[in-house]
C-alpha cells in the first residue's frame, strides 16, 4: 500500500472512493469508512449487517451491498449517512442477527416488514 500511495497519490491518502479502492486491500466498505471517519465527508459504509437489515425492514430492495449503498444514497437523508453503520451493525450483532433475529423482543417490530424472515 505505501508503494501505491507514493506512486499514484504522492504519498497522501486520497478522500475519493474511486481513488481509495485502488489501494491494495481496500474495498468499497473500507473506502466509505475512511471517507466518513478520516475526512468527515458524506459516505455510507455498507457491510453485511446494513445490507441485510435495511432489506429486512423493507426500506430498500437490493441484491448486494453495492446496490444497497446506491439505494441508500438515493433514499436515506444525508444527516444519517455517517451514523447508520455503527447503529445498524450493533443492532445486527445483538438483535437482528443473520440466522435467528429476536423479533419477539425487537423495539421496532411494528415498523419492520420482516422481509425474508420466517
Ligand atoms: S422485527 Fe425482526 S427482522 Fe425486523 S428489525 Fe426487528 S429483529 Fe430485525
Give an overview of the whole structure:
- The chain is mainly α.
- Helices cover 47% and strands 0% of the residues.
- The chain has helices at residues 2-9, 17-20, 28-39, 48-57, 65-75, 84-94.
- The termini are far apart.
- The structure holds iron/sulfur cluster.
- The site of iron/sulfur cluster has 12 residues, from loops.
- The site of iron/sulfur cluster (SF4) has 12 residues, from loops.
Structural topology:
Elements: H1 2-9, H2 17-20, H3 28-39, H4 48-57, H5 65-75, H6 84-94
The chain binds iron/sulfur cluster (SF4).
- Which residues form runs of ≥5 with pLDDT under 50? none
Residue share in helix: 40-55%
Following the backbone from N to C, one meets helices and strands in this order, namely: HHHHHH
Number of strands: 0
Question: What is the CATH superfamily label of the largest domain?
Answer: Helix-hairpin-Helix base-excision DNA repair enzymes (C-terminal)
Average of per-residue pLDDT values: 95
Q: What fraction strand?
A: under 5%
Q: State Rg.
A: 16 Å
In CATH, the topology of the largest domain is named: Endonuclease Iii, domain 2
Oligomer: single chain
Overall structural domain count: 2
Structural class: mainly alpha
Distance between the termini: 44 Å
CATH class bucket of the largest domain: Mainly Alpha
Amino acid at each position: 500500500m505505501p508503494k501505491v500511495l507514493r506512486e499514484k497519490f504522492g504519498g497522501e491518502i486520497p478522500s475519493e472512493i474511486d481513488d481509495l479502492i485502488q489501494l491494495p486491500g481496500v474495498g468499497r466498505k473500507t473506502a466509505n469508512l475512511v471517507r466518513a471517519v478520516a475526512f468527515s465527508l458524506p459516505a455510507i459504509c455498507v457491510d453485511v449487517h446494513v445490507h441485510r437489515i435495511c432489506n429486512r425492514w423493507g426500506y430498500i430492495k437490493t441484491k448486494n451491498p453495492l446496490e444497497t449503498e446506491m439505494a441508500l444514497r438515493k433514499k436515506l437523508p444525508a444527516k444519517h449517512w455517517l451514523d447508520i453503520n455503527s447503529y445498524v451493525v450493533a443492532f445486527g450483532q445483538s438483535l437482528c442477527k443473520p440466522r435467528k433475529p429476536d423479533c419477539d423482543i425487537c423495539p421496532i417490530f411494528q415498523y419492520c416488514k420482516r422481509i425474508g424472515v420466517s
